[in-house]
Predict the 3D structure of the following.
Amino acid sequence: QAQLVESGGGLVQAGGSLRLSCAASGTGFRDNDMGWYRQFPGKQREFIARISNSFFTYYDSLVKGRFTISRDNAKNTLYLQMNNLKPEDTAVYYCNSIPNMYSWGQGTQVTVSP
């Protein structure tokens, strides 16, 4: 069964950077649009960025200009470069295809201190 494994989260000070990775197993990664999502405590998971199978990108207004989504189809891996992080970016970050065809992974915790 195809799986997703997110990694790269951690604790960083405001203004810092992190690079998240999402490794996908199984076949079909290169054919799928992929996206990053995040979930705040007690809230539903929300969309933040998308990359199409032809590498077009789209961002939620809250992260546009600070986050960059990319993909390496040869490695079946999705990335999220996060710059100028803010305390309000603190959340668990997830990846999935769009539409969501994979089972959700465990996510990776990002914590931004003031």
